[in-house]
Design a protein that fits this description.
129 residues, alpha+beta, eight-stranded antiparallel sheet, 8 strands, 18% helix, elongated
């Protein structure tokens, strides 16, 4: 089966058109308290969004109008887990950590490692010397 695709004139990369993008939740998110407060007295932490399984179906014909695209050779099934900074348990700021990959366990481990780096940075920033 051949899929509808195009080659970017800027990068030379080949992209396939996506006909369908399904998202299925794998687990619910949670809040993580880093145990420090910021200058305004708010608890500093992270809000972890739910982990999602993404399943893509490629289009066999080029769509009319806009369409989601995927670089050729990228996996059609992957897991994604994301987290955002939080203050007092509410999402805060624009710093988002997102990890994607073909294996759920590996995605969760990498997200945990990146959250730990963020925790260490927050503790260093907000702990009084």
């Amino acid at each position: 089966m051949s899929f509808a695709s195009y080659t970017s004139k800027y990068t030379g990369l080949v992209y396939n058109y996506v006909a369908k993008h399904e998202r299925s939740p794998v687990d619910e998110g949670s809040d993580i308290d880093f145990g420090v407060v910021d200058a305004k007295g708010r608890k500093v932490g992270m809000r972890v969004w739910r982990t999602t399984l993404h399943t893509l179906t490629l289009a066999t014909e080029a769509p009319v109008g806009g369409s989601e695209i995927l670089e050729a050779g990228k996996p059609l099934v992957y897991f994604e887990a994301c987290a955002i900074g939080a203050r007092n348990g509410e999402s805060f700021g624009s710093a988002t950590i997102c990890v994607r990959g073909p294996a759920l366990g590996a995605v969760q481990i990498e997200l945990a490692e990146r959250i730990e780096r963020a925790r260490k940075a927050a503790v260093k920033k907000w702990t009084k010397a």
